[in-house]
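Design review, sub-item: ligand-bound model
Attendees: FS, YL, KQ
YL presented the inputs for the 2-acetamido-2-deoxy-beta-D-glucopyranose complex:
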Amino acid sequence: MGHRVHFSYFIIPFLCLFSFLVPSAYSQFLDYKFYDRSCPDLPVIVVRNVWEAYWKESRVAATLLRLHFHDCIVNGCDASVLLDDTEDFKGEKSTPVNRMLPLAFEVIDNIKEDVESACPSTVSCVDILTLAAREGVILSGGRYWNVPLGRRDGTTSDPKAVVQIPAPFEPLENITAKFTSKGLDLKDVVALSGAHTIGFAQCFTFKSRLFNFQGTGQPDPTLDASVLSDLRKTCPNKDSADTNIAPLDSVSTNRFDNAYYGNLVRNTGLLKSDQALMTDPDTAALVNRYRTNPRYFFRDFVTSMVKLSYVGILTGEKGQIRKDCRFVN
Ligand code: HEM
Ligand SMILES: *[C@@H]1O[C@H](CO)[C@@H](O)[C@H](O)[C@H]1NC(C)=O
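KQ shared the predicted structure:
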């Protein structure tokens, strides 16, 4: 009898400990070495394919980064943004906000094809997209970071859910609310916005700042005058110019650096949502910090990218490993 009492005093705390730890650790468990044994060629395959595409068209780096963001911010990182429409299915990919450089989707397909021949049904499309986004940052001159792996692909994609993506016309509070609803915070908003140090935006995404800001019939008073006249040349006030593009960072367009933050301080941010980071004292303080100290920016960007890559992930038995990133199995 004495023995049994002893035994249960000893074992019950352990059982409790494990019953709490196991499910939560399991559901969020990612690992840098997840494919080290099962697909050792993965890193090389990703690098080779992203490089190849980058030499063809350097913008692909920016598009991959944006694609990864749009995947994660809409119902979690699950490669839902990669699913093609079919006769009886319409997903996020064909929505206007996800019409991106076709080359970015082709890179993912090419990586997947190579990976399937090296290690079939092993590597998820969402992990491929996450790695490809990191590779794009590196090719553009950004700092390296380790990508935790082991996410699994979703089996659904909801076109209506793209409203979860922040729009450039929204006030800063709304954009922040969209981030916080995903477990990201104000610092993540400012650090991740630094992704706009590469890539381009179509004229319609900032046109109202040039000609008719908030119905005033005047340009946005917070937009620098010389930038205003340059942008009016790229984006004349007619519908046919709406899909012309301007660089998000005109100082160092293809370079992943902290110039984006300098632009904001000089009132030359391209999107209203970029420039809005200067309107709140907390975000403006971070902007100034990242402008003056690139190392802080790189450090916080990496931290926030890893955080973003954990949003709403599927692991363990959930989801699947797609054979073709465009279709569920
Ligand atoms: C903070 C809220 C954000 C807003 C309102 C926003 C909005 C936009 C808009 C309007 C464009 C241009 C789209 C077009 O021309 O159709 C764009 C491009 C881009 N965005 Fe964002 N974005 C945000 C955050 C982010 C984040 C967090 C990332 C990545 C971590 C990101 C990465 C990019 C990149 C790299 C491009 C250029 C893509 C290319 O050239 O193909 N953005 N964004
Ligand atoms: C900002 O969010 C509020 C509250 O959700 C909403 O009513 C408003 O329409 C949003 N503004 C924009 C421009 O999307």
